[in-house]
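Here's my example:
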Amino acid sequence: MTETAPFPVDSHLQGLSIAYRNTAQNFIADKLMPRTPVATKSFKYLTFDSAQHFTLPDTKVGRKSEPTIVEYVGEEKSATVLDYGLEDIIPIDDIEQASAAQHDYDPKARAVEFLTDLILLDREKRVAQIVQDDNNYLAANATTIGGSSSDKWTHSSKNPRDLLLTALDTPILRPNLMVIGREAWTKIRQHPKLVSSVARAENSEGAISKAQLADLLEIQQVLVGDSIYNNANPGQDLSTAYTWGKNLALLHINNAAGAHNGITWGYSAEYGKRSAGIIPDPNKGARGAMVVRVIESCCEVVAAKSLGVLFKNIVS
């Protein structure tokens, strides 16, 4: 007797879900906490004291002596990957009518895209909370700007260029990515001192681009968090909020790092690939229905708190 899987994966729908990108929302979570595979849902990972990478041992070897023994030491911790998923119910009537109409609309594919979008938005919110959490940095590297307008980075007395250059030299490994919320970026990119720094002229009107700031700071990329979410409880009127707030973080991210290798501020342990499939449900609708399900299994890990700098509420 052939066993039937409780969740039969549809290779076509799975491919759609994995390839799906919402360019309108500009999700950046995967760039800040890149996905790395783990073999089991419960796994162990290492957190590192980055100082060991820069402590020089005696490398001289005598004619008959042995080389100095060094040990790459990290604190081992345990974590468990969590499952995230959503479902949509599509009546058989809808599927048959779409097929009879002979157009390109596929209700199953549309459901996969819709569900994937919500799962990715949830992950974006989750990663944003981790990146903007003071506890994920050394105490000296997490700063909340005061409420006075003169304290904010938009004030004429502040020089965001100098503040950023100083902060970039703080971690033992220089950050290579900057992430900033849209609300903060819209204001900061117009700061006269940043504009004049890029233009190399007295003219301080206008605005700079992400690429220009990255070049000025000598980092790989400036990422702007554009995504929004509904902050209201179910049943209440729509109340949107920016996922990335008015904050800025500088992070050293190593895309090749994983649970046991490399050093990076953070990454995401992923068990398997995102999956999508269909489960028949004869009890829904007059002619039954298809339940479309999309799932993924991952766990966000902060592996080296010392490799990041956080500034909160940099603008009003």
User: Anything to note?
Assistant: The longest strand covers residues 289-302. DSSP finds eight helices and 14 strands in the chain.
